[in-house]
Structures
1.
Amino acid sequence: MEWGNSEKGKIMMVGFGPGPKEHMTFRAYEALKEADVIVGYTTYIELVKDLIEGKEIYETGMREEVDRAEIAIERAEEGKKVAVVSSGDSGVYGLAGLVLEMLREKGWTREDGLAVEIIPGASAINACASLVGAPLMHDFASISLSDLLTPWEVILERIEAAAKADFVIGLYNPASGTRTRQIIETREVLLKHRAKETPVAIVKSGYRDGQTLVLTNLDEMLNHKIGMLTTILIGNSSTYVYDGLMITPRGYHTKYSLAGKESAAGVLPDTSHVESD
Ligand code: SAH
């Protein structure tokens, strides 16, 4: 979606999906082509480098989010078209919110400010789910285990609430080289509410070079490598593994017979309410 006046310059928040361009949206692809200036974390710039040759590029390190947003706003205020690249979706633990917050501080409005376009992308939770089956078929919660910006007690409360309410859970930022305690405590809380056989998928570098997929369970999940490039998907109480795929039923198996075309009651099920998904 776009707001503001592009004659005053433009910032495009581009979520490019998990990695390679075939999983980028057409609009994200076009936006990278249209941009004069590209701003992003070095790893992300690297992932899209063949699409942005010859453009003015600002690469920054991991913790320099505010610098990145500031450069983007400055260059846009000079009348340029600036693309800020994020992996996945820029509005999911990305820079879209930070840019809007900073523009707000400057008094930006949709009516007469520079143009801002937020371009959606497939977030890691969606991309990683697609690699291991269909684990997100029922209600899910996404939780980041990074306590850099959120106190750990708050994160733990959310994990506990999601576990108790039987949400499928996607864990972003589960661990880093120095941050290793969080995933251990997370598992302990999950085990208070879920069976140790609950399926768990550990996806590292989904759709990128070095991709690894592990299907395990709550009991054994810590026997596998978990780091910065990993997303973890925890099943709900109905999730099961079939032929190496993680499946969360939507409830059809209780409502309808899946083996034949007819429902247990002998009439075709009305699926019109699910077709739009
Ligand atoms: N805006 C991004 C999330 C950034 S937070 C999005 O919408 O996906 C960074 C975290 O995202 C990582 O720690 C990891 O948990 C997850 N992540 C991002 N890309 C990933 C990928 N290709 N494979 C697995 N996890 C990924």
Note: Residues 261-277 have pLDDT under 50 and may be disordered.
2.
Amino acid sequence: MMEYIGVVDSGVGGLDILKVLIKEFNHENFYYIGDNLNLPYGAKTKEQLEQYGIVLAQYLEAQGAKMIVIACNTLSLNAIEIMREHVSIPIYGIVRPTIKGMLNHKNIKHVLVLATQATVNSHRYVDFLNELDQDVIVYQQVAPKLVDYIEGNKIALIDDAIKEYVDIYQKKIDGIILGCTHYPIVRDHFIKLYPHLEFFDSRQQMKQLVKEKLNELNMKASINNKQVIKIHASKSISDLKSASEHFFNYDNVQLLEGGIFLEQ
Ligand code: DGL
């Protein structure tokens, strides 16, 4: 059976992480699921997210995943423990690595976590941050329009939405954690609007984590393996593709849709 690194998100957000992983681990096969049937995850309850997480983890294991990377803050924070209980392959989340990466930046003492409602509700960003550095002052802000606009490919509306969420904090903070994998897709907009702030996301830390785990668990693919990439949308692959073609290259990618959840 072909072996993959499984990567999951609610939609296009995780493709920004997948892009980095594909390039770095160019002999590894990847199986990405964008759960656009259940999007947006940010508006879901913990119980709903746990149900999605179990189905996705079991599906990926059945497809031959040797490990799963949850490229979604909302799912990591609400469902990683229960997902781990339902499969025998390792599952990694992105929140702790992101926070550790940020804390290596010595001058960050006031930070805004921009995230989905379900992530903010979990309160885990604040808890992890304070556990690792008690002096950091953390603000949280929910930014639901950003996921809507990114999934709907309405990039022209992004700047106003970012301002609506961030302007009130900009004088109080040194940096922003882009605490939803959709937001770094429009990182250029953030940087242009707030050039004096630092921005943190998960891509570099995720790459590092996957590298360490492949080595530690002796799971590296053969250097003779010709990389296979599958991208599977739980509802509509054309929606996923059209919202991500501007930042993700679909050459040599196998596309699939449906058949993961009992949607009919
Ligand atoms: N991309 C996801 C995250 O990192 C969630 C977006 C959504 O579906 O609300 O939190």
Note: Residues 25 and 184 are 21 Å apart (CA to CA).
